[in-house]
């Protein structure tokens, strides 16, 4: 094995010394964005496994995300980063099917799993386990999901290890009644648990760059509560109003110094009972997101409701008219997103025009709302007060988009719960906005 030359004191902020030195089996690291808690865990896990490798022993570590398709761009790369810091990446082989990082001489391995494939996870007899890491632990449904797997891993403890050490890392949800906030709070003071809080303010080694600080300051100035939640890791609570309408910025016309480079469409559907809303969004070279136009059809009060075949034609005409306007000539359509519960219109549209709409991978309502909050707090969302005209019925007006968001509220009877609900009335543009932000989070530079 190559000689390890990493200087941990230059890689781990002093604030995390207790995490590095504790011998407690259960370690909960909670904190805001850019607190580097995940980096500390990754470095510590590599350090732990190297102690066995130096002895010629085979030792294994399990890393778990709630959803398997998030592994590659998060924990998998993070462990590779940590191995690179130790100068040892070339001594490990990295595979993605399945996700494993294996020490070539000893077979010591980092195993990566999604909790969504629990049966596969439960049945794998890995053996020689020294540690388990649950990254983005707030994504899990409840503490029972941890309990289901923890016992399995404890039974597979390495014979030279005193215990299997467990790590949880997450950004606290803004709802103080979220199950994970209540669970971690209940573990404070427990003998076997270390509960550690951190934020970007704990950085003494200069990991938070000037550019990061500028972004943080911008969000702090735009939406102070969101800043406290996102960067300080504080569960600031939920007001009755879902959004701060001051962050919806009106435009009389498109900016002359910032062209639109990509178009996105997002649709919430209703048919005979409720409205169908389709939003046309533009992304600019400077990262602005603009609601360009809205198609909105409500069957309320109409004797004959539109059939899926008629809605299909309406939506196709709306996309054709908006995507070809000279104001954003050359901008290509990147994605069409639709409510995942909608099948009739999606199938009808494919039959009529051979074009697929992508069903949104729905999350909890509060989590989809949080993507919108992230965009708003960055000060990058705008809407055209008077959309450039297409001449189509049910289009060319963004007023309904603003009015629905003004009225959009949480049900106050559910605020003090783990799963707060919104009032499901006149919320169709709100839904299409959430689907757009959720489905295109990476393109929009939102938290993923």
UniProtKB/TrEMBL annotation:
Every Phage terminase large subunit C-terminal domain range: 268-435
Top-level taxon of the source organism: Bacteria
Membrane-spanning ranges: none
Stored InterPro entries: P-loop_NTPase (IPR027417), Phage_terminase_lsu (IPR006437), Terminase_L_C (IPR035413), Terminase_L_N (IPR035412), Viral_DNA_packaging_terminase (IPR052380)
Phage terminase large subunit N-terminal domain mapped to chain residues: 24-234
One Pfam family matching this protein: Terminase_3C
NCBIfam families in UniProt: phage_term_2
UniProt name for this protein: Phage terminase large subunit
Organism of origin: Virgibacillus chiguensis
């Amino acid at each position: 094995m190559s000689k390890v030359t990493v200087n941990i004191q230059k890689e781990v902020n002093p604030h995390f010394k207790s995490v590095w030195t504790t011998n407690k089996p259960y370690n909960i690291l909670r904190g805001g964005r850019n607190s580097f808690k995940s980096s500390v865990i990754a470095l510590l896990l590599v350090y732990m496994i190297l102690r066995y490798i130096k002895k010629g022993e085979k030792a294994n570590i399990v890393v778990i995300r709630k959803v398997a398709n998030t592994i590659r761009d998060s924990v998998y790369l993070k462990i590779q980063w940590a191995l690179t810091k130790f100068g040892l990446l070339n001594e490990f082989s990295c595979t993605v099917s399945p996700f494993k990082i294996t020490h070539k001489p000893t077979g010591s391995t980092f195993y990566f799993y999604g909790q969504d494939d629990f049966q596969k996870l439960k049945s794998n007899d890995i053996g020689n386990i020294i540690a388990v890491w649950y990254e983005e632990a707030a994504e899990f449904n409840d503490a029972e999901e941890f309990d289901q797997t923890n016992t399995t891993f404890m039974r597979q403890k390495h014979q030279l290890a005193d215990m299997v050490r467990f790590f949880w890392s997450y950004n606290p949800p803004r709802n103080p009644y979220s199950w994970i906030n209540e669970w971690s709070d209940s573990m404070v003071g427990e003998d076997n648990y270390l509960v550690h809080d951190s934020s970007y303010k704990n950085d003494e080694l200069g990991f938070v760059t000037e550019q990061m600080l500028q972004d943080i300051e911008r969000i702090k100035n735009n939406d102070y509560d969101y800043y406290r939640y996102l960067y300080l890791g504080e569960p600031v609570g939920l007001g009755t109003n879902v959004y701060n309408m001051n962050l919806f910025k009106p435009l009389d016309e498109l900016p002359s110094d910032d062209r639109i480079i990509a178009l996105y469409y997002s649709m919430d559907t209703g048919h005979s009972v409720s409205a169908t809303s389709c939003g046309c969004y533009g992304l600019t070279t400077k990262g602005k997101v603009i609601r360009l136009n809205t198609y909105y059809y409500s069957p309320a009060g109409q004797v004959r409701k539109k059939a899926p075949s008629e809605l299909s034609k309406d939506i196709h005409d709306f996309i054709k008219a908006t995507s070809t306007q000279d104001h954003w000539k050359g901008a290509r359509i990147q994605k069409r997103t639709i409510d995942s519960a909608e099948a009739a219109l999606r199938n009808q549209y494919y039959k009529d025009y051979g074009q697929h709409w992508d069903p949104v991978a729905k999350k909890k309502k509060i989590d989809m709302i949080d993507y919108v909050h992230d965009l708003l707090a960055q000060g990058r969302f705008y809407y055209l007060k008077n959309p450039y005209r297409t001449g189509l019925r049910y289009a060319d007006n963004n007023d309904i988009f603003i009015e629905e968001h003004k009225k959009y509220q949480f049900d106050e009877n559910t605020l003090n719960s783990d799963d707060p609900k919104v009032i499901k009335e006149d919320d169709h543009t709100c839904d299409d906005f959430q689907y757009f932000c959720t489905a295109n989070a990476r393109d929009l530079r939102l938290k993923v």
